[in-house]
Design goal:
Radius of gyration: 20 Å
Distance between the termini: 21 Å
Strand order of the largest sheet: 1-2
Order of helices and strands: HHHHHHHHHHEEH
Helix content: over 70%
Strand content: under 5%
Number of domains: 1
Largest sheet: 2 strands, antiparallel
Shape: globular
Structural class: mainly alpha
CATH superfamily: MFS general substrate transporter like domains
Length: 284
């Protein structure tokens, strides 16, 4: 994933990069619309092993396609590095305040983002009375909406600026975050509306984020930096699940307790990420 983002950043100028990131993000939308239902169908029809086998076969096909279709991204390499230290990438990041701010912004945003995601399904079922059989609709509707909203958000970020558009989507995302974490029994269409808005706004804020973070490092070092950024995001994802798991609990009737506390913490982290994003300065 990190190398894909680095390739996109190397290919598209900063002024057009958000549009490219938005188009790239539609892959997640397609995965929600087609991938999740297909995986569930394969598991139900054959075996739970089959979806994983299908992913492996699809990965091989994509690898072959990449070898023919993706050009060699090596024009930014002036000369082969000599005697590069194993931790040179980390050293460069720690010695560059702007890159440290970008990493901090990325980590805090991921903490706020993934803090509520692990418990969305249990909360919808236990607190809002949502049927387990309808869970696929959450991903189908959300993926379908972001299939159109992601390219729009990318073009908007290129026209209006990455940071302002991030702020708009980040603030708008606070609404469905609060609603989801405080949800009571409501009709199906209400849940799908809220979850659809959640998908649109969190997807919309990630597009300018990726464009902004990829702009703090020169092309010669972008691959290494984006790999570290991806690692920090994964670490934040695991840490956020650990924190939210320590806060919530499950009642005897199946309700998820204290999920609203997780929502308030997520909102606070998103607001902090807005402040951090304003301190990130693109250099490319």
């Amino acid at each position: 994933g990190a190398q894909v983002l680095a390739i996109v950043a190397d290919t598209f100028a900063y002024e057009r990069r958000a549009m490219a990131m938005g188009t790239l993000m539609t892959a997640f939308s397609l995965a929600s619309v087609a991938g999740v239902p297909a995986g569930l169908w394969l598991a139900a029809t054959f075996s739970w092993h089959v979806p994983f086998l299908a992913i492996g076969l699809l990965g091989i096909a994509v690898l072959v396609l990449i070898s023919f279709a993706v050009p060699h991204m090596n024009k930014h390499i002036v000369e082969k590095p000599v005697d590069q230290k194993p931790f040179q990438v980390l050293s460069d990041i720690f010695n560059t305040p702007n890159q440290m701010r970008a990493l901090s912004f990325s980590i805090v945003l991921m903490l706020g983002h993934f803090m509520i995601i692990p418990f969305i399904t249990p909360a919808l079922v236990g607190n809002a009375g949502f049927s387990q059989d309808h869970i696929f609709l959450i991903y189908f509707v959300g993926g379908l909406l972001t299939l159109f909203s992601a390219p729009f958000a990318g073009r908007l970020a290129d026209r209006r600026g990455k940071y302002p558009v991030f702020v708009w989507f980040a603030l708008l995302s606070l609404i469905p975050v609060w609603l989801i974490t405080n949800l009571q029994p409501v009709p199906l269409w209400v849940i799908l509306t809220i979850s659809g808005l959640f998908f649109i706004f969190i997807n919309g804020r990630m597009i300018p984020t990726q464009a902004l973070v990829s702009s703090v490092v020169h092309p010669q070092k972008r691959g290494g930096f984006m790999s570290i950024n991806s690692s920090m995001q994964q670490l934040a994802t695991g840490l956020s699940a650990l924190i939210s798991g320590a806060i919530v609990s499950k009642a005897s009737d199946g309700q998820i307790l204290h999920y609203n506390w997780v929502g308030y913490l997520s909102i606070g982290l998103i607001l902090v990420s807005i402040w951090l994003a304003g301190r990130v300065k693109p250099i490319s």
